[in-house]
Design brief:
Mean pLDDT: 85
Radius of gyration: 20 Å
Bound molecules: FE2/S2 (inorganic) cluster
Oligomer: single chain
Distance between the termini: 31 Å
Strand content: 15-25%
Number of helices: 5
CATH class of the domain at 13-128: Alpha Beta
Structural class: alpha/beta
Helix content: 10-25%
């Protein structure tokens, strides 16, 4: 099981079971970590039966389907849905990855979904990114030029643009930060 950064003394309990109401013959069980700090309750694992006949291919599609059709209280981050922003990083089937690029067909059996390990959990699948944003701030991750004052638009040459190839991986920082091995071996 995933090692989570849980509040002291908290124990993950068995949660609610959401049975399929569509009558689909093509169901998958999806187990999702749930925790709401505004209650005194322990974290729990809720289980959802999801109709896969009407679900696109990625894990994020499953979460969207659960939120839109089964349980609107589920909380998770997502933005670009194209593997660029890194906001949907989470742990799926025991591996860290981006929910918007991870095919659910690659996960055997029940689909277990947890927040990223090593981050404090704010709620459900949402990790606390405050520390990471502070790190971002400290490295000043924006383009700078050598001229003292900019008074006009500065055009970027194709050669200068090529120097940025690969740097977009920084945007997956939230995922990499939870995976020490990748963080250390990824050259940016
Ligand atoms: S939503 Fe942006 S990387 Fe998944």
């Amino acid at each position: 099981m995933v090692q989570l950064n849980l509040p002291k003394n908290s124990e993950v309990k068995k949660g609610k079971y959401f049975k399929d109401k569509t009558g689909s013959k093509n169901l998958r069980r999806v187990n999702v970590y749930r925790w709401d700090p505004s209650t005194e309750e322990n974290p729990r694992i809720d289980t959802y039966e999801v109709d896969m006949d009407n679900c696109p291919s990625k894990v994020l599609d499953i979460l969207n389907k659960i939120k839109n059709e089964i349980d609107p209280t589920l909380a998770y981050r997502r933005s670009c849905a194209h593997g660029v922003c890194g906001s949907c990083a989470m742990n799926m089937g025991g591996k860290n990855g981006l929910a918007c690029t991870t095919p659910h067909s690659e996960i055997d059996g029940d689909i277990d979904i947890y927040p990223l390990p090593h981050l404090k959990v704010k709620r459900d699948l949402i990790g606390d990114l405050d520390g990471l944003y502070k790190q971002y701030q400290s490295i000043e991750p924006w383009l700078k030029n050598n001229s003292k004052k900019e008074t006009t638009e500065i055009y970027q040459s194709q050669e200068d643009r090529a120097k940025l190839d690969g740097a977009w991986l920084l945007l997956q920082h939230f995922l990499l930060s939870a995976d020490e091995e990748k963080t250390c071996s990824t050259k940016l």
